[in-house]
């Protein structure tokens, strides 16, 4: 019999093997200062493109005041206990009612965490006789939720309508045999590529196939649609989404999440979501803070309008300068380059040390080998100066990547790794 830890000592994983060179800089970096368009990294000011504060609410004066007053009033512990047992309050219900109205659903249920929430929602919606159909590029929380499923599940090619229909047909055939149903899962916005899920086309398929639609709209809520109600509103199909999910961790600049659907569905879920039934209720200070944030979203679209002014300036500038930003249809702005992991490390170090630009680096196994993805998150707090400086910096690092400078700089790292 092998030691359980033998595999850990032998293989650190595709990212873990770079830990000695990467940790503290490329992964697990420490940004300092208030959340803003400019923060400090290792003592230097950098323009930050890695903070999911889309609407700039993290340091909005009204939000900060509401947060501070809520903490003074309630502390950070109240309520103690799970919602079902001792942690339910009038403010939780108020937030749920206002969220349901905002996203045009009969009812909503507040969750303590987004990752746990969507995972547990999937688990509660399906049984062993049901079939799940989901996008191959789904977020890890969706994949983990699907892993809990004891029945059949199929992935379709990312946003590919032919693949979607093929797998719906397969799922329907099996569900007819098992006596189950079909759950279709898409994201409103795919967080790496920035593409919206093809919700309009998917709901059209309801005329041909019998399925229920769950949409994870973490990146769409607050950023898309006339009022900011998300990708479903943007595409005119919000009423056809059977279960709508969004997190407070993006546009709301906070912690928590919610699901919204017909009242009967929400009533069922709140009695069957294990991650909520057996976990502490969302703290009152966060609930009050979420109410203030939602009030600002409902009051005006000024934050969303400013966000999109910056998004359009950044994305148009990148395209005009010949950069590949894929087919994003959201605020998420991916910049695709070609190179190895060591080259990516050299490139990002140059960006941070010499150009004062901080953005997330994504490499294999998240994306295919040989590609480098610089993932940028524009916010309402960025300025045109930030965008101009960033465009100039990206032009400079692309030239160094193409002329082999980063390849030379990475040789020492490769030799150190013994490769």
From TrEMBL:
Classification via InterPro entries: Aminotransferase_I/II_large, AON_synthase_class-II, PyrdxlP-dep_Trfase, PyrdxlP-dep_Trfase_major, PyrdxlP-dep_Trfase_small
Single GO molecular function: transaminase activity
Provide the cofactor list for this protein. pyridoxal 5'-phosphate
Q: Per its UniProt record, what Pfam families does this chain match?
A: Aminotran_1_2 (PF00155)
**UniProt KW keywords:** Aminotransferase, Transferase
Q: Which organism is it from?
A: Psychroflexus longus
- What is the protein name stated in its UniProt record? Aminotransferase class I/II-fold pyridoxal phosphate-dependent enzyme
Domain named Aminotransferase class I/classII large: residues: 45-393
